[in-house]
Every structure is written in structure tokens, then in C-alpha cells.
Amino acid sequence: RTRQLLIMMLAEACREFEKLPIIRHGDILRNILYSGVWCRFESVSKKRREIQEKEKNGSI
User: Fold this and answer.
1) Cα separation of 45 and 40, whole Å?
2) I want to staple 36 with a disulfide (CB 3.0 to 4.6 A). Which of 4, 32, 44, 55 is the partner?
3) How confident is the model at residue 36 (pLDDT cuts 50, 70, 90)?
4) Contact of 37 with 10, CB cutoff 8 Å
5) Which phi and psi (to 5°) does residue 23 adopt?
């Protein structure tokens, strides 16, 4: 559910970003939008799964 919401929001953000007359550092900004956000999302998701797994194993 969170992933789907993020996909929709990023699609809109990227669409609007591409309309902007970016002259400097466009490649860096695109990298953040298209890759950086997903790297961070996966990192946070992994950390949350590990915490949930520890809580699950600790409660048995």
C-alpha cells in the first residue's frame, strides 16, 4: 500500500519536474527522483522488517 502511494506521488513529481527548465545539476536531481528515493524507501523498509522480525521472535 505504501509502495503504491509512493509510486503515484513520484510519478506526478517526476512528470512536473520534467516540465521545469532545469539547466544546472539536472542529472543529479533526476538521480535523486528516480533512484535515490527508492534506495531510501528500501533501506527504511528493510530496517522496519528487521525490527518486526526481532519483535516477533522475541515474543515467542
Assistant:
1) 8
2) 32
3) very high
4) yes
5) -105, -45
End-to-end CA distance of the chain: 28
Residue with cell 527522483: 33
| Residues whose CB is less than 8 angstroms from the CB of residue 17 and which lie 6 or more positions away in sequence, other chains included | 29, 30, 33
Which amino acid does the sequence have at 59?
Answer: S
Q: What is the pLDDT, as a whole number, of residue 59?
A: 61
What pTM does this model have? 0.68
Does residue 25 come out as left (phi exceeding 0), alpha (psi in the -120 to 50 range) or beta? left
Domain positions in the chain are 2-58
Gyration radius (Cα) of the chain, Å:
16
